[in-house]
## 1
Amino acid sequence: MCAVIVTYSNRFGLLKQVIKSCIENEISTIIVVDNNSTSESKEQLVLFEQKYSKVLQVIYLDKILVLLEDTKLGFRGL
């Protein structure tokens, strides 16, 4: 099973909860599309990506994509 999660802005606190829940529920592949979040959130996400590198892949975007374009990009990462 896999999960595609799209994040933006300064939402790492919520994102962290979702990623941990996915891991606890044995999701084998987690793809996060970082839709140009704040630098603070990106820094924390990089650390999380390193910690959970076996299941977590992050796609970092430099500009905000319109609704659903970011999700499509995440599914292409599978």
## 2
Amino acid sequence: MGYAAHFTSLVCEATGGGAAVVSISGIAKYDTMAIEVQRLHTDERRLVWNVAHPDHVIAQRRWYEAHRKHLPDPTLQGYVSAMDLSDEEAQQVLDRAVEIKGERRLFARYRGFIYIFSFHGHRGDKRMYHGYRVDDPRQIRTRMVDICNRLYKDLQWEELAP
């Protein structure tokens, strides 16, 4: 998450753009999946993710599901990239993928390749994603300039340098 915070009651002193709080269950004030906090020395108020029950983590978990359009198949025509990982490996990579604010896709690096995971809906209370490997980072640089700039600048993904 790349975030450091210190919470005292509902006032926080923090660095970064996202936060999570782990609370003791059974205390009504902190029993919801999101709580509002006020930033120290400012009037800024925001909602942060609060974990008080195992269900709060499960509800935020990402679940990988293979999609037929990304199966390795040389007969497919058009712009379709294959997912070269097993479902288990793809789940592990998805678990480490990063979010970019305002973007529904998630991005990860694994074994020298970039992987993109797209949200494709809910199955019950599970958030389902499918994904694919980017064979040539220059291809996505031409179509996703802003995203590549942010991954390069914020996370130092050198393969996405302008």
## 3
Amino acid sequence: MFNFNALFCCIGGLAGLFITLKFSDSRVLVLAVAIASTMLIDLIMRLTNHEVSAPLLDPEAGGYIKIPGLGEFKFVPVWIICISLLILVGLMYFEVV
């Protein structure tokens, strides 16, 4: 369902989660920092990978999650999932959702 690089992204997200839990009481801030640190680790891995031609979208450049049933786009990069989660956290903060 995911590659080994996605595991490193999750470890970075957990580090951001625990550091933010130490200094903040806001649940929304803790979620936002954990998701943003996961996305940051994935983008660093992708931008420093010079073995592929399109590092931002190539699944082998960084972390990806395999979603069955999407056809051609079955490998979704971690940074795209993190952006959608940050939008949901923002909507939760402004009490839209």
